[in-house]
Amino acid sequence: MKSVFVYASQFDRFSLGESHPFKPYKATMVYELCYRFGLFDHPWIRVFEPQPAAEEVLAEYHSPEFIDALKGANSGSFDFTMLHYGLGSNDNPIFKGVFDFSLLVVGATIAGAEFIASGQADTVFSPVGGLHHGGRAHAEGFCYVNDIVIAIKRLLKQGFQRVLYVDIDAHHGNGVQDAFYDTDQVMFVSLHQTGETLYPGTGFETEMGEGKGYGYTVNVPLAEYTDDETYVRAFKAIYPPLVQAYKPDCVVAQIGMDTLKKDPLTNLRLTNNGYCQVIEEIRKSCPRILALGGGGYSVPDVVRGWTLAWALLNGIEPVDHFAGSVGGGVYGHGQDIDSLRDQPHRISDTLKKAVDRYVDSKIAYIVDHVFPIVGVRKATGTV
Ligand SMILES: [Zn+2]
C-alpha cells in the first residue's frame, strides 16, 4: 500500500466570508487531527504539499471566458458582468484571492490524480478538493471550478479506460454528471438528498446519461431524514453490483460529509457510523482510490469524520497520542474526545417507514432500468 495525504497548508488563508458556510480551514483541522491520532505514522503514508495548478490546467475543462472572469475577480473587487458566470452571488461571493484559491484546489486534486496515474500511490485523500457543482462556464454551489472533472480527464488521458466516480455528498454532483453524461468511460454514481427538497434540484433516478453514456449515470435520491441504516442499505444494494459489472481501473470518490444529522444545510440524519460503513465499501471496491473532500458544514463533525475516513482508507485504528494533554474543544463538543465515533441516532418509526418506502422505490427503479444496461447479472439462487 502507498498512500498520500494531500495537505495544502496555504488553503486556510482564504475566506469566503465570515457568514459563508464553506470554511477552507477545515482541511487544516483534518490534518491536525490525523496527526494527533497517529494517522501519518506509517511507512506507506506520505504527506504531500501541493503547488497551485498552472492557469492552463483550468482550460482542460473550463471555457476561456469563464477563466478570464475568475481571474478578473482575484483582486476581490466585484463587477456585475461576473454574475453571468455565477461569480458574485451569495453562494459564490467574490473574495480576495478567489482565483489563487481555485488554482490551489485544482493543484491539490490533480497532484492526487498524478500520484494514482503514475503508480506512486494507490490511495490519496485531498480534503480541499471535491467541488462537484462547478460548471464548464459558471460557478455555483460554493464551487468556483470543477477540480474533479479536470482530474478524471487527466486519468483518462493517462491511459485509464474506466473511471468510476462515486459521490456521497448530500447534494447531487450535477457538475460532474454534466461533464460525463454521454460517455461510458466514466460511471457516475451519486447518493444524495432528493432534488425535490434540496439544491441543486437535480439527480433524479431517471437521469441516466445519454448516447454511449446511457446507463452510466446512476442517481439514488434519498428522502429527508434518511438515517444510517437506510443509507447503508441503499449503498450496498447499488454500489457493489455496479463496481463488479463495470470493473473500474480507478475510483474517484467525493466524500462530502453534509449527510450528517447536525449539518445545517441539509436534512439527512446520518452519523459518522453509517458514513464509515460506506467508506469501507468504497475502500473494498478498488485498489486505486482518489478521495476528495467536498461539502460538510458542521465543521467539528466533518473534521472527525474525515479523520476516520483517512484511518479507514489506510486500515488503521486511530489512537489519540495526546489523550489527556490536549483539549479537544475545537473538534468536538467543548470536551476531550473520547472517541471519534458519533453516538448512534434513531429516527421515529413513522419516519423510518417513509424513508424506507422512498428508497426502496428508487433501488427497484435502478435494478430494473440501469443494471441490465451496464451488465449487472441478476442474482441467482433459490426460486
Ligand atoms: Zn454538499
Provide keyphrases for this structure.
single chain; 8-stranded parallel sheet; alpha/beta; 383 residues; binds zinc ion; Arginase, Chain A; 35% helix; 11 helices; 10% strand
List the helices and strands and how they pair.
Elements: E1 3-6, H1 26-36, E2 45-48, H2 55-58, H3 64-72, H4 98-118, E3 123-126, H5 147-157, E4 163-167, H6 174-179, E5 186-193, E6 217-222, H7 228-246, E7 250-254, H8 272-285, E8 289-292, H9 299-313, H10 349-369, H11 371-374
Parallel strand pairs: 1-2, 1-3, 3-8, 4-5, 4-7, 5-6, 7-8
Helix pairs in contact: 1-9, 4-5, 7-8, 7-10, 8-9
The protein binds zinc ion.
Zinc ion binds at residues 169-171, 256, 258, 295.
Number of strands: 8
**Order of strands, widest sheet:** 2-1-3-8-7-4-5-6
- Straight-line N-to-C gap: 42 Å
Provide the succession of SSEs: EHEHHHEHEHEEHEHEHHH
Task: Extract low-pLDDT stretches.
Answer: 332-336
Kindly report the average pLDDT value. 94
- Count of helix runs: 11
- Rounded to an integer, what's the Rg over CA atoms? 20 Å
Bound molecules: zinc ion
Secondary structure class reads alpha/beta
Taken together, the total number of domains comes to 1
**Percent range of helical residues:** 25-40%
Please give the CATH architecture: 3-Layer(aba) Sandwich
Largest beta-sheet details: 8 strands, parallel
CATH homologous superfamily designation: Histone deacetylase domain
CATH top level class name: Alpha Beta
CATH-assigned fold name: Arginase, Chain A
Strand content: 5-15%
Outline? globular
